Batch of 4 targets.
Target 1
Amino acid sequence: MGAGLKMVAGWLLECSREFAARADELDELDRALGDGDHGTNMRRGFAAAETLDLDDLTSSADAMRHVGMALVQNVGGASGPLFGTFFLRVGASWDRSLSTAGIARAVRHGVDGVQARGKAKAGDKTMVDALLAAADSLEASASAGDELSVALDKAASAAEAGRDATVEMVARRGRAALKADESVGVVDPGAVSVALILRTAVHHIG
Ligand code: ADP
Ligand code: MG
């Protein structure tokens, strides 16, 4: 297994463990404005991804495309196709040299795909608010010449700030939009998942 694939496989495996450990907490967050299944959905998607034999994969891009397919195929609702699209698109433009500029491009490509599919804009109180913050941060890091580990740490912090910013937003997309009037004061669970995925990346990549 190459170094890039080893890092990405380790990252995806830890994501799977984190979603298994935090499924109840994420379900509880989704109960406030949605139907209480977000943690269960993410756990199921990543558990399916874990059954794929990563040793058979030839590249880190392959690993991400496999996770994307597992999420699209095994998770219903809004989040499966949206998180699946993210990983499929990141995998499609992943540059195996693992540079800050390359990852910035891949993540932007992923966020563009999520927005094309779900139509959420910045400020709509969705996973997109955390993803856009991470993509912007990675691009700023690429311009500043940050090395990858520094860039990912900043991107994870930006995603966490994007997650926290959803608390004050009014929900405009997905099930939560049906409870728009009650949505201020509650964090968006999809944004919590994005922050988890980015923070986990810091432990493995770079
Ligand atoms: P469902 O809403 O179908 O039950 P989940 O509970 O698994 O799916 O996921 C809910 C999350 O999906 C929300 O917290 C939000 O971040 C994200 N989401 C829902 N609709 C959209 C959309 N149109 N664009 C971007 N993200 C969305
Ligand atoms: Mg839900």
Note: Helices lie at 3-33, 38-50, 60-74, 79-92, 100-118, 127-144, 148-165, 189-204.
Target 2
Amino acid sequence: MTGSAPGASPTGAVRGLWVTFEGGDGAGKTTQAQLLQSWLENEGCRVVRTREPGGTEVGVLIRNIVLHHRGDVAPRAEALLYAADRAHHVAHVVMPALAAGDVVVQDRYLDSSVAYQGAGRVLDADEVRDLSLWATEGALPDVTVLLDLDPQRARERLDADDKPFDRLEAEKAEFHARVRAAFLALAAAEPDRFLVLDATLPIDELAAAVRARVAPLLPASGVGTPA
Ligand code: TYD
């Protein structure tokens, strides 16, 4: 978040609510984000559903490089590309939505960079995080849901999907084990922002836990509701 409680900016203006989903590939982030979106809309909230990388037109171009370029991308270049996607996305999608009082439901944010480019590619985690904080002028979500899953189980789910692997998914088991450990460490360091869930639980149970965390943050002041 930008430092203020959901619903009010430091100037007292309306501010929406920002929820991000994190976790390894195959953990079920997209399913849970969709379920949260549907529930919020049923509650009468205006929802902006988005993702990184690729939440803007510029971001779609960057996504194509980071996920589908054939051949090597230097780890620092990869980190900068994700940060560039993020800078543009936050400036053009997230902040305007929050300023309008909407609820932003987002697949992945800077925690993915710390986990994948930091622990996965073995760049310095603090430097990777600082790069994204610079890119976004320090913006952090109100709630980050971490769907934690053993990489072996995740791989079985991805195999069952029958889609070709992207550059990151194709990485070796040790890479994904480091990514998982990094996500858990991030969650332990910021327990107020993170909700950690066991991604092997039934979909409905996970959705209920997410709703229970988000519901109290939809203040009576009308965050995310039509004006
Ligand atoms: P995602 O959109 O979840 O993958 P998919 O379209 O296959 O469901 O994420 C794309 C990949 O990008 C994923 O493997 C994680 C990786 N990633 C990073 O390495 N760093 C980042 O900062 C972000 C946002 C994603």
Note: The first strand starts at residue 17 and ends at 23.
Target 3
Amino acid sequence: MPLFPIRSLLTATALATLTLPLAAQEAVQPENTNAIAANTSVQADRFMVAAANPIAAQIGYEVLDRGGTAADAAVAVQFALNLVEPQSSGIGGGAFLVYWDASTQALTTFDGREKAPMAATPEYWFGEDGTPVGWFDAVVGGRSVGVPGTLKLLETLHDRHGRSDWADLIEPTKALARGGFQVSERMSASIAGAKDRKLDAFPAARSYFFDKTGAPLKTGTLLRNPKFADALELIQRYGSKPFYEGRIAEDIVEAVQTPFNPGILTMADMAAYEVIERPAVCANYRDFEVCGMGPPSSGALTVGQILEILSRFDLPKMGPGVESAHLFAEAAKLAYADRGLYMADSDFVDMPEGLLNDAYLTGRAALINPSQAGGKASAGTPPWQEAMLRSPDTQLERPGTSHFSIVDAQGNIVSMTTTIETGFGSRVMTNGFLLNNELTDFSRAPEADGKPIANRVEGGKRPRSSMAPTIVLKDGQPVLAIGSPGGSRIINYVAKSVIAILDWEMDPQAALDMGHFVNRNGGTDIEAGSDAEELSAGLEAMGHEINVRDLNSGLHAIMITADGLIGAADPRREGVAMGD
Ligand code: DON
């Protein structure tokens, strides 16, 4: 029997009547995982948006309500998030987007991942002593900044699938940037939390996020961002050109010349940036195809391995509980072991084709003892031998990202995960937006035991990601759009929620509310203060090393059913689902 209650559904109308910006602010949820907000699933007939901030969701809702496409709404939502959730994403960062085109009945993906400067070498992260620097020592400053991809991604998406005027999609955010918006509870808490983590290291972020006395901005402060409004005006008029080749590119190249950890980005690096359209990577899971982002993300392959391994066990019959959490953790260990050895930017590194091979995963599943935890898993040997020349990468990414899901009235779908890497990225700010620290998603060590690490830095390469924007199909038709922030835990959050919705037939909101259990090929993390704590004793008895901790996902899901759309927003953040 399900451990977790199925919540009742709320019609969308209540949320849809919110107006900008004050009413939207009232829907702000507590941001702390230990104070989980009670969201309810939202139902709609025609269209829906589920995003991490109510102002951004409202702006997306209005685009859809005016007949805009999912692509149009994605553009509007991303610009809004940049302003009202600046700690997590924006045009200074990168993103991956999975797109369902209702007219061609086809899935595709867009890779807007940041790129290393062309002059970067595998020793990029070596300190003066010739060894790799520590993670946080690498984060702050211009050196961690990769060429941003998000703006080019939005422009590409809009060119291909947009219908609304580009400038109109940016206008609401520009107006809020000029007129001011109220700092949300989560943004305020994030600023306070980052004060001791060098958010005030450089003047631009210091003067924007702190008041004149140096105190972090409080919830409800009216904040204006005229520099961002000016940049948006340029982008409204000239698209991405000023950002990649003009005045904003010059500002970025100058801004990364920080007094410590200066970067090496050039105008040529900026101008050479390209969004890459790539085929979706799909895993078979029972009657479903779970599709998402292939390399340079490890998302779809690792989510896919976990699910395909688990399809060898009867999870639907088991339901949520100790037995299924154990199998999930063991499957995740095996998948993360392969991720560490093999997965990186496949434009630079050959990767085995057999990572989702049926026979291979049958063999991997057979390694699981259903009643006893194994130790740390080793990578397998999919049919491709060169891989054995590599060493595993132990790099695990940290918090600072956002996911939104959108379905428009024509049935087009966007599932987009967008990031500046850690909260507030590199802390380097220009033109009112933060620049990413995505280059710390590379392995800082280029090799181990004399063997190269697949995810080492190389000039022009994209760092491996865990972002897993996902669209699930059944009989060739979309049934679910979902994704989450959470660094390398994203893979666990997404795989577990897919199981909860598809196998355990949980209402989407109940699935997102469910307490997390996570394994990244080590101990099993259990979400503090959640229902999952009930699993700890049983898992420990099976040999799991349990760590009870805060697990801050940001899942935003839309289920597509014969009776309409059902949306859900992660109670651990301040987002909402809105539709009509
Ligand atoms: O690309 C990645 O996998 C990471 N840079 C994402 C970081 C992240 O999700 C932070 N989330 N809260």
Note: Confidence is low (pLDDT under 50) at residues 1-35, 395-399.
Target 4
Amino acid sequence: MSGVVGILLCAGGSTRMGFDKLLTPIAGKTAIERSLEALLRGGVERIIFAVSPSSKAFVESLAVPVPSDIVSGGATRAESVKHALEFLRLHQGAEIVAIHDAARCMVPPSAVRESIECARQFGSGVVAAKTADTTMLIGSDGVPVPLERDRLVRMQTPQTFRFDEILRAYEGDLTKATDDCSLYLAAGYVPHFVFVAGEAVNQKLTSADDWQLALATYAHFGTGFDTHRLVEGRKLILGGVEIPFEKGLLGHSDADVLTHAIIDALLGAASLGDIGRHFPDTDPAYKGADSLELLKETARMIRLAGYSIGHIDATVIAQRPKLAPYWQSMRTRLAEALEVERGAVSLKATTTEGMNDEGKGLCISASAVASLY
Ligand code: MG
């Protein structure tokens, strides 16, 4: 018999949002992967995935570090759980079963752990949340009836039970059940609730708002910094714009210091290394390279890694020339290369009041911060 088995429900259709919410990466990882990680970190020792035809191939491709099986989901959530429980009954059984909706991918591992502990002790551990909003029940006559807020509880997942008890509960009428706890209750058991930190983010990805919350939860930030020497006989290019000046920046590529700092910030936010790793200055391919092309390539890598670009904020550190007349064209060119709105690119400049090498006109530096979702 297995000890603690997780049933991960990956069969929910997700046509409501216009894309597959379970299979679309959120900052590099899908909801299925995030939920799986939380279950494993919370102490689950074996996983049964209930999948739909659309999620099956993806789930099969996952490297799961514990024993795992895949069963076909049903037409409803309850049917999917039933399939998984039946499979488990025929294949080794379990002591404790933690049932979790993959769409609740922001569940803290501590919630999983506490739910399992509670089920060990009391037979069940249902992650639940109190409600802060005044809640009313609309009567059959259309008149709302205020409910006693302090006694209201919203069910989340995981919902964890002793295997034999939840198996028995699933012999009941599945047609009206929207969660496991309702069936458990209908079978005559009294569920134990677990109230944990993190209930506010343990939302099911249902609406566009939930999706935004998930993106914000997993925002990543990166910083970048670069310096190039100012010399005679070179063009000065900043943010992809040629700026008339008596000197230009020295470098293997076009030495666009601003764009380089932005590239490093983006790569950093995605943990993809730095500009030197992807576009080495020893590679003749990048001699005289247009840095905006490198920026485009960086944006492509970032998207491939499952991120979307949130915002860029960059500062150019230069004593001269005055850059203000060029800001808008730089922002436009950078935004076009990144395929983002111009409002997502913020540019600033500072002098060093004549101090440091920038202040003495020996070089120009730039720093940047990027956020990715
Ligand atoms: Mg550079």
Note: The longest strand covers residues 220-232.
